[in-house]
Structure formats: structure tokens, C-alpha cells
């Protein structure tokens, strides 16, 4: 604002300006020469937006004189009064120039009653721009970034920044001293203070590349991943519970946190990270964790499921719309820096994002199904699955070979009878799924449990004797690989139109569920009847009452395992089998006709016994009568190996992520209300203003993979820019584009557009390596500058836009807490694992409050491992501005309030750390007084105390000693008390919580 | 100019003031220092507030109310049993409601028969407002109340409805109205937070997020005050030796000043230093609040501090505390409900017992608060708001409870700018739906803001590409209840 010299609405209030002795600075701004080339986006549009668009902008209703200046056609059209507002290349013929320079009150633009007035510089810019041809440009962020700089130029950042400084006449600060540098690098790269040993060795390292080596050490420290994962968690509203009334657990949320830490530590290329977030479950080539062998890619999708979860909403469709809106909001801000959610009720007021774009996104999310996902399905397991499948095929083949003559005969009989059963139309029910045939009839089998087909025709072999007992009849079974294996059988979407849905099923510790409008938190009140436990080994008719939701979209889930307060668990004996699923009113129908597909299936190499159910029955009959051989010696060996292998496939670890559903194209909801859908349905696609934005997705599912590909298209102007800007933001405390989550027209313009584009191009050229980008930035001179500012700098660039010095900043909540643990010696630097339970104070009340409080010191673990309960957020984190997890926060607020002081002054945790530090200090018997103070300073400030500071410390310690001696209090020994109070005071120094 | 012209705000540095005034919108905050001058002709800034988020903005026009006491009747008081008598329920008691009118889906879907009110209504005051036997004390204040019988909510579930009532959105994570008010107006007392929640025992469903700052800076979140030795978190010094903390703070200040000397002027660090002075003062000003020693016996009795019912006593002390906070210039005070052992006002069963116990706990203290405020002349500048998140069904849930009803409920306001003795809006013969002058939660917010001198369409904060408002794109000031 300052820097484009925008005019204020309050210019009329001269009184205040005078009182405050404020110069508006016009003349100063004018002393800067006009740019060589005047750019529409950077120089002209801000002037037009601020001064002209109210009456001559895109909004028809407020437009005057039928003139619009926001588009070329409008500005150059013939005016009502004759002539043209703008004649490109001819300022003298452009009436705009005449009007802005007019002195007559009724002629000048903007008119006096608007309280707007152009500065001389603004007028000159407009004239020069018209003179240069008045080129309108697309919004800067939608133009693909290019650079003419070599992307391996080590000095590029410095040159670009210094170029601006020179232009503005700003003198840069010197490079900071080594103590400051190592503290800065350690905190910004790892979120922790450097150890005194590291400080010493950096100070004494006089080699030319000492700084680079130090940077690399921190980049390669595991703490780096913890720091940068936390940055990312702000974007995806990371939380481990669902909030709302009872704050239910989000299954395995922390596994996503660990995934992020690993990803950043391994420097997973950003394009891969993006793809795994949007479509990790759909990627052909999955990535596995090298150490555990567990799958990584699907974990990325957990971010979709991190939102708030409402149980028992009365308006379930609205609940879905809210949930999807949040997913669109987070996805579009995080990856594209665009606020697509603003187009929910109408076309975006400022950005070229239409309501149709929003509903194209809506369809993608609506076609995505939430699901528990196994976190332990390793690469080994995938191999085992293949081997077991091969063994099963082999067994079928054995039978098929042995029975070949009998089979042929039976097939002939069957054909002679023309096997198709005449279709009788049932009147009292509809079949939604019939698993008595070979396939699932359009249902999808997610996970391993149900395999790819029903059990029909599988050889049944006696485990003990190896004797062939017959061929299996058809049903869906989660025991393809035995009990305790995860998988879900899901129907396509359909519209509920009966009172009941019935499932013939059997099993143990399992569920059948009706998922209406993608609603997952099924429970009483209201939704208790749309889920049934399957817990008996006998076949049973399970009835689900769906009458109240006629007309709603739904799908059915059959799955082993249970939800314990919405936290998914899979007991090892859990399994479920189903024969069919029907929809009906009133009474369960007497008989569910089994529709057998016409003809017999031809055997193929995958399924040598692909037979109709009728044929299976006839063969089993023959077997019983001894007409077919039942002794096939190889069967037992194959079965034994198969059973043995299956044991390893049991799933015990899960996270809440997504599976693909069936493509749904959404209508536009008029004014954002689902009750007012448009006739037309919007095909799922990317944003129309961006490359590939007009190509409808072809996927039969959600199209999330195509969405990822569109974002990663080489011509996409945002993906790379948005991410490098985030990196810059985290390193300097401010982005090149300050509004890090909004690159749209309402966002701020980049302070250094060339630099942003250069970094964006380099990022891609360097294989989307985040570490390389960080290294490139922190090894620049700009990053190394001292934070000390001259008065002149403070005057000319008060908010440090141009980075002549390093911006001073307060440490984030996590860094403050973690630093306390480190300096007191109580940090447990264990990586990963389940969260440490939240420490509950008396002030943290309400429903869903855990029964037990976690430890005061969070077990000494870093803040990233502390539980994030939506309804019981840690006060210290919130007070020091960790965002409340409901939307994307690329940039944290930085507040400065007494409650922060109160925490460091009085919070028992802080006092506890001071005491621990004192004890650590006193455990070293041989230290002199000066050495004690030095020990403390090196830990807390990464530097030695000055002589003055030593003297002050000595005086202060004496004061403390005096008070302690007078005190009659029992408890700690006095020496510990004295040093506890000293350390506590040190924690309260600004130098401790500020990065300078 | 005092450097700390309001409490929970980061004080403006010279440079910021300069920057802001250049941008244009600091002038309002500045003008408000002149003591609530009507800001005629001043347009509110529409853009860019996020950048200077820590400022408070000052009122848009002359305010009627300086403070708000929000008496939250958590769980949903039954309108037909409190302020909206419906004789027809008695006539048709026990009949099937579905034969009388269309019944919406409810939270528990356990629709019983039409249920008459277990309580009688009588007319009170000069205005003759009918009040049920549940509230004999509040009934004596009706000439000060503006009753709205035509409230509606968008949500029939507690949590969504709580968020909606508190934040104007049914979704978790939006700024609470108290946060908006302090963002708009700041606090008048720098030693006490501007937005205080007095936790009477029950935090509403949805938890502390009902009182959070959402996307507004954390400075605007509520401070929760509880009864006991430590009324606010971390307010008690950890040092057991007298003056030890002062010595430490002195040492800290000395070294901090050295840092400033070394760094040159750094606004953020300077403000952080100043915060210590405020924090230090809060340590004594907050515990002082909860000391009722100076209150007269008559006052204590008026509130019901001598009651045999421990819940009445507890709520009485919350109400008295609220008055003391008002006296100290706290902008927005919310009282949560006491835990009377029969749940909040959420009587899905045992309506009679549950409502009676809740009413008994709050009735006398609330009446005491209104009378005390009035006698001290504080009611003129304090807006008292009494409401639940929704109403209850006129038919039974099961046999003797009532389910949630967002289609109609009653609430009242009293005090600054309110036309006492008013009844506004109308429900059908069953008290089930609003038939005249519907008032939405957005309208309620707009009206509260209006009384505080804030235009609900102009108090905005840029977030996620939009200029966000408490009232979103809705809300009308309810003029008919204003004095």
C-alpha cells in the first residue's frame, strides 16, 4: 500500500494528518524515476482499482458513463460524448489523460466528491503507459513464470534484491556475526536452538565453506523434517480429533504427521508430495518407506479427512456441502494459492474463478469416499498377495485339469438347458448387489480383504486331509486372505427409495453401513439404524432403516472391523461375508431370486474354474456321488503354503484417508444452496482460468489424479510460485507475496516479482527439491544480513519490504516450547509415534474432555508430537499464535499480548524447565561463576555473555541469594532456587523468544 | 498520548501510526480516543485490515451500549414454558402433533404427543408481559425487557447451533461475537482482558471454540475466568518469596532495554517488553475482581448469594462478578450455565425437574443483576442478553421431555438502548414456528453490534480472500425493540 502510493479515503481528514505531523510522502515517491517499462499489473492496475473501478470497473450496476477501464475493449471504445478514454500510444488523444489533469472541479477525474485524488506520479505513470501502447495484461499470477537468469546462478537472489535496494537508495546492513547466524539457521531450519558445541565448532571453523557446512548439517538433521512438517500442517488444518460436540479421534492422524516428517527429511520432491496428497491412493507406482516397507503415497490423502466432523446433523446434505466446501478451500489455497471457496455462491468477485469452477471441484470431492486405510500394507505384502493368488489359481487349475472331462459334460448339460433363468420382475424388492455369481456386480472392493471376485468356484480343500470337498458357492467374503485383513466392499452410488436396505450376511466383529451423502459419523441419535454389527457365524438378514432419507444419494459398505467412537479398529478374528443386498419396503421378501448370467463363463488362465453357480452345484453333486475325483495330492501342499503366507497379511494399523468413489458431476448450487441446483451438471475439471482447465476429467472415479496432473502441468503458473513463496515466507517471516494463501487479485502484489519468478523456475529445474531451494536462499547474503537497522533504513523502509536487513521476528509457539526443553536438558528427541496426551488444566473443560491429563512437560517430546485435540487445544500453542485448525493458514498471526508474558512468567511448565536447567547447571561442580553464566548464555542465546552482562548477573544473583537466605521456605535447596530464578528470568528475556 | 490506550491490543508505535494513517484507517482508532465522538462522514475502511490486524477500530457511530453481558442459557430453554404461553397446548394435550401440523425432523426423532406446559403464566409489570412460574424474579423486571418471541436458528443440533449463535456460522473455527466486539472496540481497561467468559460450570457443546478468535488475531480470544484461587490461567505468580517476582522483572527489564539499545528501534520487541508491565498489573487486578468483601450484604442478598441452593449461589457470584467487570470496562462478558446436576437446559426427558432446577439457579441472580445495574446507573450503558441456542418442541420427546426446535424460540434483551416492556414477533398457536417478524441469529448479532455503535456490514476482516463479517452477508438491525 505504501509503496504504490495508494490514496486513502480519509484524505479529507487533513486535521489528523496535521496533528500527527505526517507527510504523505508524495514528493518523495516522485523522486524515484518512473520505470522504464510501465507494467499494467504492477504500476497501472493498482491505480485504476483504487481510483477508477468503483464507477468504471467490472460491476455493471455501479458503472458510470458506460465506461469501463478494466478491459482493453472498454477503455478504447468510443465514448458517449465522443472520443476515446484511451488511445494506445497517444496520450494526447486519450481523454483519460485530459480528465485526470483537468483543474475544473466538474471535469477532473476522479471527481472531488469521491475524496480521491491522483498523485503527480500516478498521473505520469498513466501517461507513460498509454504512450507505451497501453497494454492490458492478465493478472500477474496467471502468467507463467519465466526468467532470463541462469538457475544455477548462486548470486541471483542477492543481485535481484540489491538491484531494488539500489533503486530505492537503501543501504544494506552488514552480514551478521557467526553467533547470530548459527542461531538463525538452526532455528529456521530445525526449530531448535543450536547446541553450544555446534556453536563453538562453527565459530572456530575458519574454512571458506564453514557456513555452507553448517547449513547442510541442519538441513540433514532429523529435526529439519519436524520443523518443516509443522509448517505444512498449518496448511492442512492438522488435528487429531474431529471437534464438534464430542471431539472424536481421527484414526491414525499422527501417521500423516510422521509421513510429512519423513517426506521433508528425505526431501521428497514437491511434485510428488502434491500428487500424493491429492491422489496418493490412486497412483500406479506407490512409494514405500524404506525402513518399514509400509506404503507412503496413500498417507498423503489423510489431509482431505482432517476436517471437522459433525455427528447427528439433522440436515445431512448441508453437512456434506460444508465438508466439501472446507476440502475445496484447503486444497485450492494450499496448492494453488487461490480462494476457490469464494465462488461457492456466485462467480468470484475479483478472480477469474467461476461458480462453475467451484462445482467442478465439488464433483471431484463428492466422488471421493472417506475410509480407513491400512498403514501397514507393505511392499512385501503386495508380493505375498501375488504369490497367494498364484497358488489359488494353481489350485483351481489342478482341479480343472483333473476334472476336465466331467466339466465338459456338465457344461454341455447346462447349455442344453439354456441356463438363463427367465427374468421375473420382483415387485417387492430391488437387488442392489448379488454376490452369488462370480463378480461383485459393479461393487468395488477396496483393500485386500474381498479380493477381486466372489468365492464362486474356489476349490474347498480340507486342511487336515487335503481332500477336495467341493467347489465354493458364491458370496462376497473378506476372508480371501483370512480373517483380520482389511478391505471394504462398496456399492456404486444410488438414490434411496425404499424404507429398508437388507443385507444377508454373516461374520464376526464386522459392519454393514449405509453411507448417505458421504456421511461417516454414523451413530445415535438419528443415524443409529443405518449401521448394523455383523457378529454371528450363521447367515442373518440384517435390516437397515433408511426410510427417512428417501431421495438421498447413498452407497453401502460391508467391512470387517468396527468403529470405537469413530476410531476404526480391526480385531484379528474379524471377517464378514455377504450373499446379497436388497432394497425393500415393509417386510423382508420371502425369496430373493438369483439371476444367473446367460451362458457359462469360459475358463481362462486367471480363473480356470469360472463357472456359474448352477454348474458349481451340479459339479458338487457329482463329486458327492463319487463321479468326480476328490484326491489331488498337490492341493494340500499349495493350501498349506497359501495359509502360511496369508498370516502376514493381517492389518493392524490404520489411518483415516480416502478411496475413490464413482464419478459424480455436481450441478451448480444457486446462491450456494443445495436446495437450488442448476439443471446443468458441471463436469469435473480443473480451474478454467488455468492450463488444462477446460478439459473434463475422463476418470470413472473422482479424477483426483487428473487434478494433480493439471496442477503439475508445465504451464501452470501457480504451483511452483506458491510453494517457493511459502519457503521464502518461512525463512524471512514474510513472503515475496505477503498473502501466501492468496495469489488472486485480492492478494498482495509480489514485492520482488522477478525474484519470485526466478525462484519458481529454479524450483522446477532443480527437480522440485525443497532442501535445495532452502539451501539456495539461506546461503544468500540477503539471508545472512544483520537484523540491526540504521535509523535511515527504519525511516525509508519501515516495514522492511526490501530486506536491507534481516527481519526481526518472534519465534513460533513450538520453537519457544521446544527451546525450553532443549536448554533445560529435558528434550527427548525421539522421532515419530502416537501423540503425547494433552496436558489438561482446569480451564480446559467441556464435552469430550479426555479422562486423563497428559504430562505437564509433554514427556519432553517436541511440540509436533503433542496431541492436537480440536476442542482442547494447548493454551500455550494457541496463545503464541498457532492457528486454530479449521482452514489453511500459510501465514500465522503474530500477536503480542500480556497472556504470552503471563505464560513465561507463571506457567508451571516454564518454571519446571527453569528448575531442571538449574539442576543441570549445578550438577557440574567445577564451574566458576562466570562459567555458569556462560553455560546458560551459550544454551539460551548461542553466545557468550558480555562483561557487563556478567556483572549484572553477579549483582542479580546476590540479590536472589539475599532473598533466599531471608526466606523461611522449605523445599528445594537454596542454591537450586537461586539458579532456578535466574534461569527463569533468562527465559523471560526477549532475546530468548526473538530471532535477531 | 498514553502508549497503551487499550488492553489486549498491541500498542501502536510511532511508525505504525504513520504507516496506518497514510493508508487511511488508523484515523478511526485515533478519533475514538476523543471519547466516542460520532464519526459522521467517516467511511469505514473496506480493505486491507488483515495487514494491521492488531488495531482496534472504534465505533462507527455513537454507541448506546458500552458493554455486553451475555447470559447464555445453554441447551435451549423451552419457549412455551417460559415466555411464550400457548393455551392451545393445554387444550390438545396428549394428541398426536402430526395430525395438527407438519413435524420437522428432530435431533432424536422420538416424537411424542402434544405436551402442555407444566407451569402457569401470569402477567407482570406495567407492560403486562406474561412469564411462567419458572422465573418469578425475572418477572419483576419485565418493564426493562424487550422480549423477542420469534427467534430462529439454522441448526437443530447443539454444537452447530452454539457455533452459530456465538460466531454467526455453524462451522467450527470462526471468531466469536465477543472477539468481533473487542476487535471492533477494544477494551476500556488495560489491566483486564476485553472479552471474558465466566465459566459457571458447563462449557457449551462445541467447547472453547465457542469463545475463540477464529481467524482474528489470538489477542481477541476470550479469557476464561473460573471461581477459585486462580481465576485466570497463569495469573498467579509462582514465586513464593515476597517481592522476588518484582526483582526478577526488574532484572529482565534492564537486560531487555540493553537489547533494544543494541538493535535499534524494534517495535515488536518494544511491545513485548511493555506487555510485561501489563501482565504484572493483571496479576493483582484480576484476583481483586473476585474479592466481594466491599460489596454490601444487601447487594449480596439481592443476587442470591445467601441462597440455600448452591447453584443459585454460584450463579449469583458469577452475576455479581459480571457487574464488577462491567464497572471495570470489560467489553464483552459471557456467563455459562451452572451444572445443576440435571444437565443444561436440554431436557429431552424430565422437563419439569430439569427446567425447574436450571431456572432456580439463574432466576434470582439474573434479576439481582438487572436491578443492581439499574440502581447504579449501569444498565443505561450495559446491554444484557438472555438466550439459548434454540427452543424446544411443543410436543413431547418420549413422554415428558422436549426435543430441540430451531424454528422458534424466545430471548430477551435489557439495558442500553433497549425499549423495555416490548414484545416482538409471534409464533403459531403451538409455539412451534414463527409466524410474524422472524428474527435470525444474524439479526440478533446486527442488533447487538448496532447498540455498541458498530455497523455489522462494515466491521470486516480480510480472510481467505474475503472481507469476513460476523453476520456474513445477512443481518438486519431489529429497530422495533430499540428505545
Automatic annotation (TrEMBL), chain A:
Domain Cytochrome C Planctomycete-type: 52-113
InterPro entries, sorted: Cyt_c-like_dom_sf, Cyt_c_Planctomycete-type, DUF1549, DUF1553
Domain (DUF1549) ranges: 157-369
Classification via Pfam families: PSCyt1, PSCyt2, PSD1
Name assigned to this protein: Planctomycete cytochrome C
Organism: Kriegella aquimaris
PANTHER family in UniProt: CYCLOINULO-OLIGOSACCHARIDE FRUCTANOTRANSFERASE-RELATED, F-BOX DOMAIN-CONTAINING PROTEIN
GO molecular function: electron transfer activity; heme binding
SUPFAM superfamilies: Cytochrome c
Residue ranges of every copy of the DUF1553 domain listed in the record: 703-956
Automatic annotation (TrEMBL), chain B:
InterPro entries for the chain: Alkaline_phosphatase_core_sf, DUF1501
Superkingdom in the source lineage: Bacteria
Pfam hit, one: DUF1501
Name recorded for this polypeptide: Tat (Twin-arginine translocation) pathway signal sequence
